[in-house]
Amino acid sequence: MLISLVAVLTVVAAQAPALPAPQGPLSVLVAPPDATGAPSHVVDFAREHITEQLESRGVRVIRMDNVLRRMPATKRRALLRCKRTEAPCIQWLGNSSQAEVVLVTELARKPQGYRAGLKAYATKDGALISEHFVSDVLDDSLLDALTQTLDVVLPATLRALRPLPPPPRIDDVPPPTRVARPGTSEPGPQPVPVPTEPAITQSSSARRWAWLPAAGGVVLAGVGTVFYLKAKDRYDTLETGGADLPLRDADALVSQGKSAQTVSRVAFGLGAAGLVAGAVMFLWPEDDPPAKVVPSAAMTSGGAMVGLSGTWP
To answer: In whole numbers, what is the pLDDT of the chain averaged over residues?
Structure first.
């Protein structure tokens, strides 16, 4: 009976249409686990855990319940009875679910713990792609062991069914582009430096010669002081001599006092003008041309007048 069933499955697999070329994410049919001595709730937990792990890794999972729901009862019983480790059964499962891979979970309970593992089969020929098992697994670490097993089987399956594209031929590879490091540049024609004339720092001519009018003002102030003392002396002589002693030439003393007083006033005026002109020339900004300021003094009948004249910017 078993031989005839295998022969029927072989004929069905041979007459089934070829699977379409794989595109997009890997499609995996999670077959019912092969369990020996494991409780039913443990088997259900293991199947759901494997399904969730596959979906979290971007795999398109096909559930066995959805495949069986579309089948008549006779085919459903025959599909469930076929041995999921033989190539005809794997091909039949692949054709029925349109999956590229059939993933079978195996659980065997032993005295020292579970022996848990996964097997991945290619549905196009029923060949085993990858398998991995972990022994002596306790109940509380069974799901972690299945995750560890899936981390080995799934990458190997992807490498077999989703290989990397072949490397390009040497003739098709463009020549490497040289990229200059930051801060460096390719040597090239260097610009010829243009000699520039050094900037000539010119100091203000007004400040440079500011000491001349200031010095002249000091000298004139000294001259004015001398003539002021001389005029005061003539005045004191007239005051004291006119009261106690007769003066022989009072008119001459008056004339000398007036002349000394006039010279003193003129000297003081010119000296003040010189000091003001020197201060203006010294404080004038260096960037602007100095103002042409000319001190002036004038004699009047009642004294002297001092002023500044010129062009101001």
So the answer is: 76
Characterize the bridge pairing of strands 60-63 and 27-30.
Answer: parallel
Q: Are 262 and 305 a contacting pair, CB within 8 Å?
A: no
**Distant-in-sequence, close-in-space partners of 43: CB < 8 Å, separation ≥ 6:** 33, 35, 107
Select from 29, 22, 20, 48 the least CA-distant residue to 119: 29
Q: What is the pTM of this model?
A: 0.47
**Dist CA 167 CA 76 (whole Å):** 45
HEC assignment per residue over 162-202: CCCCCCCCHHHCCCCCCCCCCCCCCCCCCCCCCCCCCCCCC
pLDDT tens-digit map of 242-263: 555 555 677 776 777 778 778 8
Q: Could you report the per-residue pLDDT of 283-296, keeping only the tens digit for each?
A: 766 555 555 555 56
- State which amino acid sits at residue 275: L
Backbone angles phi, psi at 128, to 5 degrees: -75, 125
Reported as a single tens digit per residue, the pLDDT across 264-289 is 788 778 878 877 777 777 776 655 55
Cα separation, 265 vs 224, in Å, equals 6
Classify each residue of 133-155 as buried b or exposed e, where b means 16 or more C-beta atoms within 10 Å of its C-beta.
ebeebeeeebbebbeebbebbbe
